[in-house]
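Shipment paperwork, digital attachment
Item: protein structure file
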Amino acid sequence: MANKKVVIIGGGPTGLGAAYRLRELGYDNWVLYEKSDDVGGHSTSHVDAQGFVWDEGGHVIFSHYPYFDKLIDDMLGKEVHERIRESWVYLKDVSVPYPFQNNLRYLPKPLQVSCLMGAATAAASRNGEAANFREWTLSTFGEGIAEVFMFPYNSKVWTTPLERMSKGWIAERVSVVDFKRLLENVLYEKDDVAWGPNNKFRFPLHGGTGEIYRRMARRFPDKVRTGKQLAEVDTAQRKVSFSDGTGDSYDVLISTAPLDLLAGMLKPADTRLREAAALLEHNDLLVMGIGLRKKIDTGKCWVYFADPEMPCYRATFFSHYSPFNVPNGDTEQYSSLMCEMSVPLGQTVDVERTYEEMLAGLMRSKILDEADRSRIISRYHRLVRYSYPIPTIDRDRALAILQPALMQQGIYSRGRFGAWRYEIGNMDHSVLMGVEAANHVVNGEKELVFYSS
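Attachment content:
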């Protein structure tokens, strides 16, 4: 590429991944614009007035890619906290190790029987013809597991009827069942907890997840412009405009802005792309943090909640990720819990009422007790816009229209919401999408993550 100008929109994992790689390649004709005053995107971190660190949701470091592993080592060195995942599911007044379907022995006997009978029926009749996520769940797990856990939990996370979701996103996101294994785990009372790519994970020792991306941005401070909210993309003139009245020209645009918003910013307006973008759906996230003057003595990392009485779908023992997530790194005196609740688009949340319902749920599950109310020294909350790109049945049809049209105009829409594919929306995927976009722009190399099925 003959010194074409590359403009990167967004200073999250994907945008910074692209920037980092361009610098590695010795390519200098680029600039990055970020709408916030800090970098990190949804992987940024915040410190509250009491000194507790909070992420924008539950992030941990695990990887499918040696490049990402090396980058993390380069950014953090030995300043990491390593953990073996210990996660649980709480429902029906019992705690079950994750994955739920592999540890049915913790359920009351009637529920064990129901789940095993359903799994046996599903194993005997599985035909692979499921038309949507709901049908796939029933055919894979059977009625018992579906009704007890999979349906209520996924309804909380996705805030979308499961029959409107495709089954194509699942991949390694959901542990499928081996009926013989389920039965043996119950009969021989065996724990089965090691499934999944994040069964071991790392976390930055200081500064939360956002510290990774702050350190990346420090490698090229003269190239990063913060406080720049994208307002318009003139595809004919190849210019970007920002809400503060400034702008820039580009030859190649790597955009990590939400794809639906990007489609609405194009000039001249493209009705076909706007109609396709209208098919894309997402929800938001309410993060609620509890900072305690108390040590929480447990090996658990996080707990999933399926019960509808608990508004959150997950509670994370955030002070376990790093001692420096609490004031002065003093986990003998302090601890923190971070809870996440999906919010349907356009729905307003009564934060105080939700906070009280969350506390009640934590007490029912014996994570906290009533006396802990007096030990709460920080009540934190943040509404995170654009949390989950929902893999609806219409999604792939929309993407098949949007992405080729943008690519024809020199626009690479990448990242969790740029690609709009949840199945490649982890941090490692997101960073690699930026890295591979840079490789393609400079050297013509194929993008493997973005085009993975």
